[in-house]
């Protein structure tokens, strides 16, 4: 069990920090805006041995150094199970589900430690080069354009269902080589599966996720067999071909990677788009500024990632006895990094509570923490940025204005933060 090296901190501070965490994890106010709680944690107990189990880090430097520290790993670390849902049945079901999967399927890189992680990531990144991603930009713009057509035709509608949800799944499907006729089915399976990332997932959601995960696995098993027989110019064929001097990816690893790309790249990018529109609606002067100066789009996308990160929580488990941040860790101890809190650390960002879409212009800003750090740094960061940039550039090109048309509640999620609905009205140019 993790313990402070220099004795305990005072009970009041510890209680306030636990209350702040409780607010983030379990209250409507915290879900709507976790930032006041993040601030309490960062200022009062930045290294917090929480009453929920696990050490919680909220400062930028601490989060970055933990994520880069190889004494801590992901192998035993499922973000969804870091804190239980509170329902013993759901917790037991999750354990069984994870045990079943680890017996029957190879893990994807996200849940591997070196040397297995190093080998798989290096083989996959060969097929995932920045050039390949940049080469996708025009196609991403076309796919965005199709969704913008839907939005233009509707005039008023939910930006999430019309644009933010379908686009990222289409992009990954296109990249992997999933035929367009299968995209709607894949999208609904992916939506059901990613809920396992959430500690709050209930029994029904977990059961649904399990069925969807098997269906997705089965789907890709068949598609891999097709591509093996008849390779195409797509990522799935490239993954089948990818090899280094020793070895190539096994069949199971290819399937695990295909699943991971959807799990890691779909809802996250959906939330980048939704959280971005939300931040702009909440700061109309920044919305007007962006529409008046579309060159600000790349910087605006990074500011959206910083200001309202699509991934709020990352973490690791301790792999060997370690001392860090004034804490003595034992193997198995959990550490959570609050990425959203790190992104508002005044030690790294001037005036961090201000949403300023020009912050990143001319390289003025620090890198955001939203994509993590170290060996698991998001493999899709460039792709996510390209998608975000093409969506906002497309919205500006197509519409002279975009306005809110109703409430924009957040989903009841902790790890992947995003809107449930986002009603908008657009005026075509
Ligand atoms: C705004 C959108 C996105 C955000 C905020 C995001 C965030 C993250 C974060 C925080 C991690 C690190 C997890 C860890 O440290 O354990 C990660 C890993 C990963 N992401 Fe993303 N991601 C986004 C989009 C994407 C996209 C579009 C893809 C691909 C299609 C993708 C693929 C991956 C993969 C494969 C990993 C695992 C890397 C590894 O374990 O080495 N992500 N992402």
Structure notes:
- The protein has 19 helices and 11 strands.
- By secondary structure, it is of the alpha+beta class.
- It has one domain: Cytochrome p450, CATH 1.10.630.10.
- Residues 67, 74, 109-110, 121, 172, 260-261, 264-265, 268-269, 272, 310-311, 314, 370-372, 376, 378-380, 383-384 line the site of protoporphyrin IX containing FE.
In short:
The chain is of the alpha+beta class.
CATH topology: Cytochrome p450
Beta-strand proportion: 5-15%
Instruction: List all distinct small molecules, including ions and cofactors, that are bound in this structure.
Output: protoporphyrin IX containing FE
How many domains? The number is 1
The second-level CATH architecture is Orthogonal Bundle
Number of helices: 19
Helix/strand-derived class? alpha+beta
Outline: globular
Mean pLDDT over the full residue set: 91
Task: Work out the radius of gyration.
Answer: 21 Å
Encode the helix/strand succession as letters: EHHHEEHEHHHHEHHHHHHHHHEEEEHHEE
CATH homologous superfamily identity: Cytochrome P450
């Amino acid at each position: 069990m993790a313990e402070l090296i220099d004795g305990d901190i005072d009970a009041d501070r510890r209680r306030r920090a636990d209350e702040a965490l409780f607010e983030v994890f379990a209250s409507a106010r915290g879900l709507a805006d976790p930032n006041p709680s993040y601030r309490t944690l960062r200022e009062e107990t930045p290294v917090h041995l929480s009453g929920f189990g696990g050490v919680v880090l909220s400062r930028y430097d601490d989060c970055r150094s933990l994520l880069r520290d190889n004494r801590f790993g992901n192998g035993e670390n499922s973000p969804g199970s870091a804190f239980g849902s509170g329902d013993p049945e759901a917790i037991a079901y999750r354990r069984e589900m994870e045990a079943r999967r680890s017996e029957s399927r190879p893990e994807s890189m996200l849940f591997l430690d070196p040397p297995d992680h190093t080998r798989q990531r290096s083989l996959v990144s060969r097929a995932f080069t920045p050039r390949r991603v940049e080469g996708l930009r025009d196609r991403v713009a076309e796919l965005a354009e199709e969704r913008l057509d839907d939005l233009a035709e509707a005039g008023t509608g939910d930006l999430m269902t019309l644009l933010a949800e379908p686009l990222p799944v289409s992009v990954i499907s296109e990249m992997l080589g999933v035929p367009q006729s299968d995209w709607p089915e894949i999208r609904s399976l992916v939506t059901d599966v990613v809920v396992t990332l959430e500690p709050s997932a209930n029994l029904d959601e977990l059961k649904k996720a399990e069925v969807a995960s098997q269906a997705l696995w089965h789907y890709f098993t068949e598609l891999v067999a097709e591509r093996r027989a008849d390779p195409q110019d797509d990522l799935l064929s490239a993954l089948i071909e990818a090899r280094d001097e020793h070895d190539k990816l096994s069949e199971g690893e290819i399937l695990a990677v295909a699943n991971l790309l959807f799990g890691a790249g779909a809802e996250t990018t959906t939330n980048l788009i939704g959280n971005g529109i939300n931040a702009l609606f909440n700061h109309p002067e920044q919305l007007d500024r962006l529409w008046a100066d579309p060159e600000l789009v790349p910087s605006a996308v990074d500011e959206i990632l910083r200001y309202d990160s699509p991934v709020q929580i990352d973490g690791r488990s301790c792999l060997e006895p370690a001392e860090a941040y004034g804490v003595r860790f034992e193997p198995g101890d959990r550490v959570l990094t609050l990425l959203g809190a790190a992104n508002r650390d005044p030690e790294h960002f001037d005036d961090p509570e201000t949403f300023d879409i020009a912050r990143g212009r001319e390289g003025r800003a620090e890198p955001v923490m939203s994509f993590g750090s170290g060996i698991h740094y998001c493999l899709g960061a460039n792709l996510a940025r390209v998608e975000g940039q093409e969506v906002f550039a497309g919205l500006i090109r197509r519409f002279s204005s975009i306005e809110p048309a109703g409430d924009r509640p957040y989903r009841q999620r902790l790890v992947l933060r995003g809107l449930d609905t986002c009603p908008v009205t657009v005026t075509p140019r």
